[in-house]
Write a structure and sequence with these properties.
Elements: E1 14-21, E2 31-40, E3 43-51, H1 60-66, H2 70-73, H3 83-90, E4 95-97, H4 100-111, E5 119-121, H5 122-129, H6 138-145, H7 154-174, H8 179-182, E6 185-187, E7 204-206, E8 215-219, H9 227-236, E9 240-241, E10 251-254, H10 256-259, H11 261-264, H12 269-279, E11 285-288, H13 289-296
Parallel strand pairs: 1-4, 4-5, 8-9, 8-10, 10-11
Antiparallel strand pairs: 1-2, 2-3, 6-7
Length: 298
Amino acid sequence: MSSKRYTKKIIGDYCVLDTETTGLSAYYDEVIEIGILRVRDNKIESKYSQLIQPEEEIDSFITALTGITNEMVSGMPTIGQVKEEVKSFLGDDIILGHNTSFDVRFIDAGFQEELSNHYMDTMQFSRKLYPELEHHRLSDLTTYLGLSNNEHRAIADCISTKELYDAIKAKMLKENLKIEDLWVKHSGHSRGIDISEIVPTGMEIDEDNFFFGRHVVFTGKLERMIRKDAMQLVVNLGGILDKSVTKTTNYLILGNNDYNPILRGEKSSKQKKAEKLKLQGQDIDIIDEFTFYDLLNE
């Protein structure tokens, strides 16, 4: 990650943030719930929880995933109406989350301004400290470490994330590890690269990047580049290209016209399959083209 706001620290005072959204694109989707924990001296001091009414209706897939219905958000405030109270609750704290860049990106888009807070990501720590795990979703880690159950609701996920960060700090202390011990760069022929058709062109791969070791499928026409060039970028980051959506797929990347709920109409067969696998508990997410470009630069 190269975002100027991204940081890695061992601290006791911070805020944990989680959002529930109608998808993974801050360009096309919306926030439907915000949860925040204020932590002081490693203890939860206060909580903020709010359902948000989106402009568009919540898709049945999202309701099945989160349990949040259109009836639940009816009459709730819009994202703009909670802007000041959320900023006030966060203050100047470092924000902690799991895949935090997604949550921060949605908050920035909803508030129509960029939060000034730095943020940390427990997923990045987890990839380094628990390499024996095949997946590093919050649900995988809560099961593996025996933490509070992850429920795909904002406050519940915040509690799980806080407990995960506590476990991370305890493991680092026990093994006498510092931040600089965890982050190193590796050669371009690192594990997890599919070189059958497209080979990496760079000499070094930063394992901290979003796509390292992840299985990626492209579908639909991309607006900014041809698909082969996009595939090359993924492989250069240590990603693995798949031709079709399977149980091993981690990300389905849709061209914008396929992703945009206003334009797309009927969902493609690949998207329907990805949604079905997601509801079955597979580690798979659907992202749009613009979000893909953002993730390349993080």
